[in-house]
Write a structure and sequence with these properties.
Elements (H helix, E strand, L loop, with lengths): L2 H4 L4 E8 L36 E6 L6 E5 L14 E4 L5 E5 L7 E6 L5 E5 L32 E5 L5 E5 L14 E6 L5 E5 L15 E5 L5 E5 L12 E6 L5 E6 L4 E5 L13 E3 L2 E3 L4 E8 L3
Antiparallel strand pairs: 1-19, 2-3, 3-4, 4-5, 6-7, 7-8, 8-9, 10-11, 11-12, 12-13, 14-15, 15-16, 17-18
Length: 303
């Protein structure tokens, strides 16, 4: 097992409570508390001859013990691989299930819903360039650049726990605006079955000045698009690489930005509404809120 790949899991999300007043004092990061966790080296056991690739997607099975991982086929892409990128390990670290070969090219996110279905995000975000600008934005109205062969990637896949493909969201090969997605990053399924997707893996306009995509989608449980919100930018309600999604106990979704230089988290009182009582912005390890607020605290290890 290659330890460096295991610890390259990009971003972890934990819930916290922010109680700073508007324009109040900055909050120093709290890193001095005891760590109740222990690193167990070599826990997950890959098949003979297989090594870990880039890994940015981990989820807990509904049994509360088994672990699902979306791994990039021993490298940083599964585009030319015959390996299964979606892996399930039992509590002892034994690989008990795998699937997704030839379908998921660049897994970026994974989610297990209440019915134990497994959702995988194919970001197709390996176009080169440093993080914070990885992959230039395609021209307005154009699909992202594609390798030779049928269009693939930029999609969300819903699998049964046995690996049967149940649903696909998005146009193969991707697209902008009505022909979503362009470099999706995360998927989340609400308790009522609504599906949320965060899109956008670039932080810079293309050579023609066209901005990248950066928004959140909401779909019905059967995959019908309900609404979208957000855009790329630096304003308080804008996104810059919306990388992860979370939901609080009141079924309010939140999205996190990530470009390894600016961090932010937004919670929405209702989808698309970034309210003062439900939003927190975090930059350079500082947190502020306009009133007592639920917040999302982000920790990230840049590649």
């Amino acid at each position: 097992m290659q330890r460096s790949h295991l610890i390259s899991i990009a971003c972890s999300l934990v819930a916290t409570v922010a109680a700073a007043q508007a324009n109040g004092p900055t909050m120093a990061p709290i890193n001095s508390g005891p760590n109740p966790y222990q690193t167990i080296e070599g826990w997950a056991k890959m098949p003979e001859g297989r090594v870990w690739g880039s890994t940015s997607a981990v989820a807990i099975d509904r049994d509360g013990q088994s672990i699902w991982v979306a791994e990039r086929c021993g490298a940083n892409s599964c585009a030319t691989s015959t390996l299964d990128p979606i892996l399930k390990f039992d509590p002892t670290g034994k690989l008990v299930k795998s699937f997704g070969a030839g379908l998921v090219g660049a897994p970026h996110g994974i989610f297990v819903d209440r019915e134990n279905n497994v959702w995988a995000v194919d970001c197709s975000c390996l176009g080169g360039g440093a993080r914070g600008g990885r992959g230039a934005a395609p021209a307005a109205g154009a699909a992202p650049a594609q390798p030779e062969g049928p269009p693939k990637g930029h999609q969300i896949y819903k699998f049964s726990a046995d690996g049967k493909l149940l649903m696909t969201l998005g146009k193969a090969g991707g697209g902008r605006d009505a022909e979503y997605f362009t470099q999706p990053n995360a998927v989340l399924v609400a308790p009522n079955g609504d599906i949320f997707v965060a899109e956008g893996h670039s932080s810079r306009p293309d050579a023609n000045g066209v901005p990248p995509t950066a928004r959140v989608y909401k779909f019905s449980r059967d995959g019908k698009l309900i609404k979208t919100w957000g855009q790329w930018g630096k304003g308080p309600d804008d996104f810059d690489q919306p990388h992860a999604l979370a939901m609080d106990s009141n079924s309010r979704p939140g999205a996190t930005d990530s470009n390894c230089s600016t961090w932010s988290a937004m919670a929405f009182a209702a989808p698309g509404q970034n309210s003062a009582s439900a939003a927190a912005r975090m930059r350079s390890s500082r947190a502020r809120s306009s009133s007592s607020a639920r917040a999302l605290k982000i920790s990230c290890a840049c590649e």
